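Write out the 3D structure for:
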Amino acid sequence: MTTLPVDFSVYTRNLLGDDEYERLSVALAQEPPVSIRYNPWKWKEDFSSSPKETIPWSNDAAYLSHRPSFTFDPLFHAGGYYVQEASSMFVGHVIRSLVPCACVMLDLCAAPGGKSTLARAVLPEGSLLVSNEINRGRSQILAENMTKWGHPDCVVTQNAPIDFMPLKNFFDIILTDVPCSGEGMFRKDEVAINEWSTANVDTCWRRQRNIITDIWECLKPGGILIYSTCTYNTLENEENIHWIVKEYGAEPLNIPINKEWGICGNISNETDKKTMDLPVYRFFPSHVRGEGFFLVVLRKPVNDTPKQEQAFSGFTPSANAISKKPKRGNTDKQPFTDECQTWLVESDNYTWHFAKDTLTAIPRKWGDIMPLLQKHLTVIQLGIPTAIWKGKNWIPHHALAMSKALNLEAFPRVELSYADAITYLRHEAIVMDASVPRGIVLVAYRGLPLGFAKNIGNRANNLYPSEWRIRSGYTPEEVSI
């Protein structure tokens, strides 16, 4: 591992003390653990018979004994699991502990999607998740990962925090995994080491306060703000939390944990009385099998508004439908809408929106909310992109294959071998058995849908998104996790 920055070492040794700093240094010189989370709608792992070590604060998650080449695992591309650092999975434990009923949640700094896919997996059914990323390129990666995760009650946006200001008292939960100096990633990422400086730490804690300022009014009175970083210093952590408490009257909340998990509490210097009593949750590689992580949960005061009914007490979605229907500029498109409805389970729960040759199914229960989001935000994906108009036909959208709302009986299904699955994921033509009917088929690997293909007899045209294809020409052994 690259030598740690001198200023970081001096500061952190003073913060932790000699013994704890030496333990941390030893841990940072070791190989980082590898961990994954299973998609609860696509893949159930039987941990009772599994040799994998489970992650104590996260359901449906485990450490792996080695790091396989995930690029060459079709189950990864099918959204069967997500590769995520174990410490950050604690966000799921927080949501399970504090959110008993349906709500509207914003993941403000969401790319590449680890915490958003986690949140969507543990939020009560009937909740809506808005996943946002300010950077255009990273927002596309976020949209890809949310598509693969496959839940219809998600929206992906590309906005700066200040863009959300018109949505006052709108969200029940806001997760702010704020950009930070990245000290907790030193073991995994040498770039984080090379880019670290005291000046960058100073820039980060100021930026973090600006983000909270921009987003605070969007949180409902009584709502929950989850603040997290992947860094160790107190400037970006305890000091900022103290500022939020003082500035906005926020109430820090306790989260139930098991002492055996190795999660640490407040490490502020004993002379710093203003932050000593804060219930904070710190993850050190020297104490947990994971990377550096910091988290605090804050509740917004209910008395911020005289309207008590606006306080977070569970969200009841509207039954009103979005009035938009597929445009009728080309009347030949309309008859195919009925066919597309058969591609979804419980299709009556959706309304349809047609734009840019794409037909999207939008959950009917969000009829009041979606127009507001579209009015104030740059929405890059919502609902289930279901079909694309090509020529004189509707072609099923890849997002439909990934969605848990897919009607598996709507298309002939073809189970692929590992070699054929890799060929398909490279966006190359595959050959199908003569018994496979011609037309659109759903291709799968080990029971999980990978996408669609159009069987024309001697071969099948590949409908996998070309921008997602495996670009490496390497042919591996079958990947096993």
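The domain at 90-179+206-304 is CATH 3.40.50.150 (Rossmann fold).
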